[in-house]
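Tokens in:
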């Protein structure tokens, strides 16, 4: 009797004839054809002719509309002249190699227009502003059709996001698998600054102003979570042949034979996340594709917050050197929280033990250090206790003395030469204003005080 089975086989992807071009170029009609490619989008959709591959036109229009500052009045054509162009139906599949994205000119407050100027481009996700209450119609329809995203009869505590998400979603929202799932943030955690600047917490299901909310998370199988963060796919609404309302589907943004065969255009399992955070994730995925447009050594007309004062005479044109700075790609993998280990007492000087919920909420601090601008300590009173000045969280009276004593004993036991005592004495002298700090010493002082720096901090 044999108790063994044959090895598992990978998914049998169908053999298709080689297609030389799976990318479609979307051009800016305001520049020469030698350097006017705005976006190059992967084309994994199947058109009327099943032998070919193309791209859903509405998907391309939304991508182009995002990078021009949330304008949904644009259209696509195969010719550069907008007056002679035949607008392409947004519900069709694009199968040609390139298209032009056109916009009507904007009329400014003084009655002038931009008829003779190229329309502006938002260069990065962090310069982009979320279109509150102005989502594209297809996304609005999806939100209306998915009014049961949140079950009003059931509430999920967000104190522990993982447990709350497992209780809500139960399984991977793409595959339905119950095992090997992870919490996937929709708007990446590294974009917290953008999140707060754009007031995205208004879409949170809870009252806290945080990205760690059920509205901004969903369960994904571990391998798909990794692919989601590359990013290899995004979630967008598309029309369904047998349903009046659009459905959210998985859409590939780069080639992958297995992912395309298994998941492309697959409708998602019941989703209770916010449609707004999904739209933000779509934008986050699109902006890095502007890299080639920004690095071709030609000035561009950009839509950014802080350039108009620097170049008031340029009508929005930015020198190519500055355009290239915007092209610096964000990390392809959203920042993950590293698991924290060690004793219950924190490493801060004089900081008492923190409970696990406080430890999870602790953030790394960023400091801009300059040898000409040492840390300003003048705002602290001179009699401020050294042992508590660096603590970013309030001490618990019941545990403060015991925790501090334990910490000092551990330092003495592990360091018989009392190097820590010397560092602490030096840090006290700095605190009293007796030592002038350059950049290197200022960083050293902050580290002794317990400040953690990002790994990529220069």
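Residues out:
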């Amino acid at each position: 009797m044999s108790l063994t089975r044959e090895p598992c086989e990978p998914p049998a992807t169908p053999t298709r004839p080689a297609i030389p071009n799976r990318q479609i170029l979307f051009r800016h009609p305001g520049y020469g054809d030698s350097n006017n490619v705005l976006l190059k989008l992967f084309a994994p959709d199947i058109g009327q002719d099943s032998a070919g591959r193309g791209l859903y036109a509405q998907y391309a229009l939304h991508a182009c509309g995002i990078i021009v500052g949330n304008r949904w009045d644009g259209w696509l054509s195969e010719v550069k002249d907008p007056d002679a162009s035949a607008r392409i139906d947004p519900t069709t599949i694009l199968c040609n190699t390139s298209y032009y994205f056109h916009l009507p000119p904007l009329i400014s407050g003084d009655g002038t227009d931009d008829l003779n100027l190229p329309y502006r481009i938002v260069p990065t996700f962090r310069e982009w502003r979320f279109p509150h209450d102005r989502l594209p119609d297809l996304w609005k329809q999806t939100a209306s059709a998915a009014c049961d995203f949140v079950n009003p009869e059931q509430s999920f505590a967000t104190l522990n996001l993982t447990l709350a998400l497992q209780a809500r979603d139960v399984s991977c929202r793409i595959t339905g698998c119950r095992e090997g799932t992870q919490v996937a943030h929709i708007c990446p955690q590294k974009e917290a600054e953008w999140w707060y600047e754009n007031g995205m917490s208004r879409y949170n299901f809870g009252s806290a102003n945080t990205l760690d909310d059920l509205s901004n998370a969903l369960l994904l199988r571990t391998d798909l979570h990794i692919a989601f963060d590359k990013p290899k796919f995004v979630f967008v609404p598309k029309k369904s042949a047998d349903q009046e309302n659009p459905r959210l589907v998985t859409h590939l943004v780069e080639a992958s034979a297995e992912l395309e065969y298994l998941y492309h255009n697959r409708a998602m399992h019941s989703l209770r996340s916010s449609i707004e955070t999904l739209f933000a994730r779509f934008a986050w995925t699109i902006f890095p594709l502007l890299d080639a447009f920004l690095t071709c050594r030609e000035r561009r007309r950009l839509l950014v917050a802080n350039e108009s004062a620097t170049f008031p005479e340029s009508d929005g044109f930015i020198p190519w050197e500055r355009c290239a700075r915007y092209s610096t790609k964000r990390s392809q993998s959203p920042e993950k929280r590293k698991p924290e280990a060690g004793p219950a007492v924190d490493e801060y000087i004089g900081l008492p033990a923190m409970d696990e919920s406080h430890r999870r909420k602790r953030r790394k601090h960023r400091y801009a250090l300059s040898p000409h601008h040492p840390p300003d300590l003048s705002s602290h009173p001179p009699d401020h206790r050294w042992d508590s000045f660096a603590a970013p969280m309030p001490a618990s009276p019941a545990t403060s003395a015991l925790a501090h004593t334990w910490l000092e004993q551990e330092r003495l036991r592990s360091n018989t030469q009392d190097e820590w005592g010397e560092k602490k004495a030096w840090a006290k002298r700095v605190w009293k204003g007796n030592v002038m700090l350059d950049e290197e010493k200022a960083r050293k002082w902050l580290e002794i005080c317990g400040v953690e720096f990002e790994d990529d901090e220069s």
